[in-house]
Amino acid sequence: MILGEVVAQQIERCAGLPVERRFQLGGTLMAHQAMQAGEIDVYPEYTGTALLTVLKESPRGMTAADVRQRVRTVYRERYGMEWLDPLGFQNTFAMAVPGSLARMQGWRTLSDAASSQFAFRLGVGYEFEQREDGLPGLRKVYPFQLNGAPRSMDLGLLYRAVEQGQVEMVAGNSTDGAIARMGLVVLEDDRGYFPPYEAAVLLRGDVSERHPRVRGCLEQLSGRLDEESMRTANEQVESGQHSAEDVAKRVLAQR
Fold first, then answer.
1. Does 175 fall in a domain?
2. What pLDDT is stored for residue 131 in this prediction?
3. What is the pTM of this model?
């Protein structure tokens, strides 16, 4: 929602064009189909998601630059869509634990957690249990012990479960505002299991022909958003204190 507003407001402010917002489309495949059908012109996406979900390719052994170049090339040739340079942050999966527990156990990495005798009560989103880059593969790389079956829940409930002492580890996202607010520690993926998820703006090729200023306006966003600023922005919206529209306006003004 925040990135959608950032993109929309940037087009309105810089290119002087009206923007129709079509948010909450239901995920990558639906947004991709809408782009192919010409129903939307631009949306923010993650490189790793595009590689896995749309191209059905494995990122194993690929660097962030490799993944970026692969999706950029195939999308241009196959779909006539352009990936602009990354916005400046990744939103990868984050295995987070309470800071007090991490310090007590001496954990810094996922390998540390996997080599300990601690049995985790684990909270995950519904998708994470099934995804190719989710739990089954993660436990092969990091065979940490579990105390019972993973608890699947809505993503919005994960951090509440940590707060209430129901779980000791959650599979969140690296830009989740609750990570900073709750003082959680994201255990480093030291064996490189999770693919890179660089955020970037995806643009239909014919948009540049119809509206030549749009691409240049959106390129001004490249490299301007970091993980910390997105975490703060997410926390402001998640807390209910600010709307995505207001937060996006503040992000653009600051950046």
1. yes
2. 76
3. 0.83
